[in-house]
Amino acid sequence: MTVVPDVERRALVLDCDGVLADTERDGHLVAFNQTFAEFGLPVRWSPAEYRQKLRIGGGKERMASLLTPEFVAAARLPADSAGQEAAVSDWHRRKTEIYTHLMAAGAIPPRPGVARIVAEAMAGGWQVAVASTSALASVQATLDQAVGTELAPLIKVFAGDVVPRKKPAPDIYLLALNWLGLPANHVVVIEDSHNGLVAAAAAGLTCVITVNDFTAGEDFSDAALVVTSLGDPGGDRCSVLANRSAASPGDWVTLDDLAAVLPPDHDPQPSVAAKPPRQGAHMPVATFDDVEFVVHTIAQVSVDNEKYFGELDAVVGDGDFGYSMARGFELVLRDWDGFDRTDIGTFLKKVAVVITSRIGGTSGPIWGTAFLRAGTTAGAETELTPLKVVAMLRASVAGIKQRGQSDVGDKTLLDAVVPAIDVIEEQIGQGADAAGTLRAAASTARERAEATRSMQAMRGRAAYTGERSIGTLDAGAVAVAVMFEALADLWPARQPGQKSTEVTADEEVR
Predict the structure, then answer these.
(1) Does the pTM exceed 0.90?
(2) CA–CA distances in Å: residue 106 to residues 100, 116, 257
(3) Domains in the chain, start-ordered, CATH in brackets?
(4) Catalytic residues, which ones?
(5) pLDDT tens, position by position, 391-448
(6) What is the rounded distance in angstroms from the CA atom of residue 386 to the CA atom of residue 286?
(7) 407-410: long-range pairs with CB below 8 Å, 24+
(8) CA triple 39-45-50, angle to 5 deg
């Protein structure tokens, strides 16, 4: 038996939906809507609506996003969270059955090149695995159809609830990487979505993207290679949409191309692209002091602007936003020296507990969820790479969306924070430093916060005012802008280990 040396060992990890097969439109969407019909639920997702739902990782989580108070009442669902969770589990179980039957019936053909590249990889001594947020039964059925029942049993599958957090969190890829027993720069991931790319990048893995109808317009600027499909000799041809690697695919992607996208073995921190700026070459890792400074600044801004935020909220809301934020973050500042600082993740989670328990209304759960998701993504790290910072911010946003049942365009803090994070990711990609990145994010957050004036509120107490909310600023969006502006103003003058209150600003932050 020939033993392949570690230096030559490689692995291929594939996402399922959109990679093994174009499953979303003709598989999952059909199964979701049939499930809704069978359970008598007052909802049917159009392709456009489902495209938005795909931003949420996991089918069960997409179903849970329906659980607004209005939907719960219309569907006559239990009022308690345990009853609603049980209902979602029943829906998802039936949806998985319907999807599995569709796959078994051959209703969803595999994507071009998948069976070929998997066979070539396995013949070449590569380890092959599948990592997906879909239910295990759905993934297994898709894999059987995509590569055949002879190869499928030889492929390790990580799917469903095997990890606590779904993509864009990196958990599923970290689990796969641990099982593979290989360094990250020996593993190629094939994904089809921005969420998948963020998850793979946060795990330190090189990512190839094969786009589909639902994901073609997403941001794949951190992918090593972006193609229309893997292609097949004599069949579908591959078109290269972006290439930041040493690979040179022709009409189809070969195993040599996949090997060529990997960074060299001597690279201690492999990037997802061949060009160093994609990793933020001029932006150093964020230290624990940096994280503390950001959190302390957010807390201080919330306390200092209690009256201002309250006045904004009082125009169409209940006026308690400023008061609630100040009371919660006062406790963060009071307990500051006592927080567990074992690692960044532990620190942020402890802050999240204080926020959730003491900020009233909807703000507490939303801000607490944001800090909790960031902390969970950070994990046991004591320093953060730029990509890890982006992954933490994206995880926070996903938590806010899920917790608040809201999205960009609903006139909430998301209308400022999401564009600001997009700018941060863009600035990192261009190699900007931290100060420049924060200034650009602050400018965008302020611009988008001001833009909420022309929007109608769709969530929170302000939503009850209907069109009367048009012409007012959203307090949460403005708060985000003020926080970014404070960070941008204070960052250049800060010293390691210095709290935001120790930095003198020329003006009161507003």
Answers:
(1) no
(2) 10, 19, 30
(3) 11-19+109-274 (3.40.50.1000), 23-104 (1.10.150.240), 286-502 (1.25.40.340)
(4) 15, 17
(5) 899 888 888 887 777 788 788 889 899 999 989 988 887 778 889 999 999 999 999 9
(6) 7
(7) 407/52, 407/55, 409/455, 409/458, 410/457, 410/458, 410/459
(8) 130
